[in-house]
């Protein structure tokens, strides 16, 4: 392996020194300490700085510093076919601001080496885990891991069961894969500890719950919620026995969950067919409308996706007006800060809403949206 200083020198040799009179490896460590919110200003210092900011070497240097930056979003778009995907990185720090006329284009990420239909996706820190999926109409055992700091894919330990359209989640430092395979598979549910570098371990599950194909997943209060075609499941890794770890989701939650959902601040948020954002409060076992944003967002968000972006409720949807005038894919994204009032209502405050033009053909749609630490 090349010495870090030599690697940095190679990375910037084409555009000149980073800081005159200072070795490049020292300069990288100095620049890496600047908060990510200031990176747009660093990018205009010189060509060499702009090149450095997008390099794996710089990401690795910031990772070693353990800086408290909020996550970015890894966004996968399905293009002309479900196996034709493009991946992008949306960074909330690089949004449009008054100091810039427009937001910089999102960073295009390398696509997974193995194109698959119906892969499950979960993230743990700065790593994204893409599990299984159908390859040439055959469910796969493959695990593909994307390192957000090095910005490259690698192969992980293969699952024990081939899966497509499974539920995937990260809890307690482990990655879980549930369903998406034949009901009689011994490893209908299994888990992986990435830090141990070992194999997937079977998670015992009752046969009665296995006749389900998952289409939604979230983690609420340390428990995995997996919504299926006929009733959802709860898996609690901390329960005292294997039998006690599995159960049905509360009926109220099950009946109100629509599409992709996410958890922010102990509340499960979903976007319903009436065009409303609502949150399931486990304390009161009820769905509550998110108030305060009705007049600031469009009446209906086409293809809405929700995710937790560093404690903010982040929404993404297909942009219509701007998209009609372009050949590229246009999405809108918005950040909402939500608080709970003294009487238990959910109050939202819109922090931003902006269009993003992606280097992908118009008509593409969002396949995955996952927060990643950089």
Chain-wise SSE layout:
Elements: H1 4-12, H2 24-32, H3 39-42, H4 47-53, H5 56-65, E1 72-78, E2 85-90, E3 107-109, E4 120-124, E5 127-131, E6 134-135, E7 138-139, E8 143-147, E9 152-155, E10 167-171, E11 174-178, E12 189-192, E13 201-202, E14 214-220, E15 223-228, E16 233-235, H6 242-245, E17 246-248, H7 251-256, E18 262-264, E19 267-271, E20 277-281, E21 286-291, E22 305-309, E23 312-318, E24 328-340, E25 346-361, E26 365-372
Parallel strand pairs: 21-25
Antiparallel strand pairs: 1-2, 1-26, 2-3, 4-5, 5-8, 6-7, 8-9, 10-11, 11-12, 12-13, 14-15, 15-16, 16-17, 18-19, 19-20, 20-21, 22-23, 23-24, 24-25
Helix pairs in contact: 1-2
Question: Overview of this structure, please?
Answer:
The chain has 374 residues and is mostly beta strands. Among the domains are: 4-65, no CATH class; 112-249, Neuraminidase (6 Propeller). It contains 7 helices and 26 strands. The protein has helices at residues 4-12, 24-32, 39-42, 47-53, 56-65, 242-245, 251-256; strands spanning 72-78, 85-90, 107-109, 120-124, 127-131, 134-135, 138-139, 143-147, 152-155, 167-171, 174-178, 189-192, 201-202, 214-220, 223-228, 233-235, 246-248, 262-264, 267-271, 277-281, 286-291, 305-309, 312-318, 328-340, 346-361, 365-372. The strands form 6 sheets. It has an 8-stranded mixed beta sheet with strand order 18-19-20-21-25-24-23-22. A hairpin with a 2-residue loop joins strand 4 and strand 5. Helix 1 (4-12) crosses helix 2 (24-32). The two termini are 23 Å apart. The relative contact order is 0.12. It comes from Zingiber officinale (Ginger). Residues 21-58 form the F-box domain. Residues 106-356 form the FKB95-like N-terminal Kelch domain. This is F-box/kelch-repeat protein SKIP6.
């Amino acid at each position: 392996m090349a010495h870090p200083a030599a690697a940095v020198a190679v990375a910037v040799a084409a555009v000149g020194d980073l800081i005159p009179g200072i070795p490049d490896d020292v300069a990288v460590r100095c620049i890496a300490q600047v908060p990510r919110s200031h990176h747009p200003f660093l990018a205009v210092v010189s060509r060499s700085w702009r090149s450095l900011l997008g390099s794996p070497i710089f990401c690795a240097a910031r990772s070693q510093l353990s800086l408290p930056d909020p996550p970015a979003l890894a966004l996968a778009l399905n293009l002309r076919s479900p196996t034709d995907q493009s991946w992008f990185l949306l960074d909330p720090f690089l949004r449009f601001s008054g100091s810039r006329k427009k937001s910089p284009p999102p960073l295009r990420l390398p696509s997974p080496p193995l194109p698959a239909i119906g892969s499950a996706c979960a993230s743990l820190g700065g790593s994204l885990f893409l599990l299984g999926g159908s390859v040439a109409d055959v469910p796969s055992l493959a695990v593909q891991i994307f390192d957000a700091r090095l910005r490259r894919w690698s192969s992980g330990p293969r699952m024990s069961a081939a899966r497509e359209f499974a539920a995937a989640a990260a809890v307690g430092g482990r990655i879980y894969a549930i369903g998406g395979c034949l009901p009689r598979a011994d490893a209908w549910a299994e888990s992986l500890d990435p830090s141990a570098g070992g194999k997937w371990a079977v998670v015992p599950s009752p046969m009665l719950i296995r006749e389900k194909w998952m289409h939604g997943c979230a983690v609420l209060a340390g428990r995995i919620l997996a919504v299926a075609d006929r009733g959802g499941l709860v898996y609690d890794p901390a329960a005292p026995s294997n039998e006690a770890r599995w159960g049905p989701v509360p009926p109220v939650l099950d009946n109100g969950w629509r599409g992709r959902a996410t958890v922010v601040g102990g509340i499960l948020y979903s976007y319903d067919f009436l065009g409303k954002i609502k949150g399931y409060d486990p304390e009161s076992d009820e769905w509550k409308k998110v108030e305060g944003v009705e007049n600031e967002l469009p009446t209906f968000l086409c293809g809405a996706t929700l995710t937790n972006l560093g404690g903010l409720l982040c929404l993404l949807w297909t942009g219509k007006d701007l998209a009609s005038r372009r050949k590229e894919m246009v999405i809108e994204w918005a950040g909402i800060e939500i608080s709970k009032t003294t009487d238990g209502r959910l109050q939202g405050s819109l922090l931003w809403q902006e269009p993003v033009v992606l280097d992908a053909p118009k008509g593409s749609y969002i396949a995955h949206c996952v927060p990643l630490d950089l």
